[in-house]
Design brief:
The protein is of the alpha+beta class and 262 residues long. It has one domain. The chain contains 7 helices and 16 strands. The strands form 4 sheets. The protein has a 9-stranded mixed beta sheet, sandwiched between helices. Strands 1-2-5 form a 3-stranded antiparallel beta sheet. A two-stranded antiparallel sheet has the order 6-7. The protein binds zinc ion (ZN). Zinc ion binds next to β5 and α2.
């Protein structure tokens, strides 16, 4: 079905718009229950937990820009994240074979640039593209409406130019990737959210099966933040973190308790 003609949010050209997803359809398909007892993607955020076949999508991008998102990040990430049906996690397997640059009881860090199969540029692009989309407009899943996450206009524009291919990854940004360390990562997505911070820095995060993406933006990002950036840190860290495993379930539990209190 042809969409309406409008201004594409990425290239700003007047084009026929596609019904664009927030999360790639290929990732939402991974959330379906292999036994088909629950065929619906499971989507959650701090405001909502539930099952829904109504995916977050709206007329946003033209065909060419959707293809660019697919080529530059979505395709690679959806192949390499955790696949519950096949019980495979390609990115996790690559890291298992590598020598950590740091390790301890809480996890380990690996130099992604020393693992040639890891496409650092695609992880960075994908993380930025989901956060950027979530910052533009509200997204609706059935009756739930998620407000746009809080990204200042100048960072939104810097991300747009990066995603369009017209500018490098913004200087005042850090892209951080955590892998779930357990054998069976939660097969859910966590909607993008921005965490409140007192400083002139925001932390945006979201989860897809096996992977947490964090995007830090602001003039106040510290050298410690920058040292964690998979793109610009000299050791290009990709981290296994024990705490990352519990986080989707903690979010889910607090949502459940909140719903009960209503
Ligand atoms: Zn476009």
């Amino acid at each position: 079905m042809a969409g309406p003609v409008g201004i594409c949010a990425l290239c700003l050209q007047k084009r026929r718009l596609r019904d664009s997803h927030l999360f790639p359809a290929a990732i939402l398909r991974l959330l379906r229950d292999s036994e088909f007892t629950n065929p619906n993607p499971y989507i959650m955020s701090l405001d909502y937990v539930g099952q829904s076949s109504a995916q977050a999508k709206q007329y946003l991008l033209c065909h060419d820009c959707e293809q660019q998102f697919n080529r530059n990040g979505e395709k690679w990430v959806s192949v390499n994240c955790y696949h519950a049906q096949r019980k495979t996690f390609q990115l996790g397997e690559l890291i298992e074979l590598a020598q950590p640059i740091l390790s301890g009881t809480q996890g380990a860090a690996y130099d992604a640039s020393r693992i040639p199969e890891i496409a650092i540029d695609k992880l960075v692009y994908f993380g930025a593209s989901v956060v950027w989309r979530a910052s533009l407009k509200p997204w609706r899943v059935q009756k739930e409406v998620y407000s746009p996450i809080d990204v200042a206009p100048k960072y939104q524009e810097a991300l747009r130019l990066f995603l369009l291919g017209s500018a490098p990854f913004p200087q005042n940004a850090a892209s951080i990737v955590y892998l779930i360390s357990s054998a069976v990562p939660p097969s859910v997505v966590v909607f993008p959210e921005s965490l409140d911070e007192a400083s002139a820095r925001i932390t945006c995060r979201f989860y897809i099966p096996g992977l947490w993406f964090f995007l830090l933006l602001g003039d106040d990002i510290t050298s410690a933040d920058r040292s964690m950036c998979i793109l610009r840190s000299p050791c290009h860290p990709i981290c296994l973190y024990v705490g990352a495993d519990a986080l989707p379930w903690q979010v889910s539990y607090s949502l459940y308790m909140n719903k009960r209190e209503l």
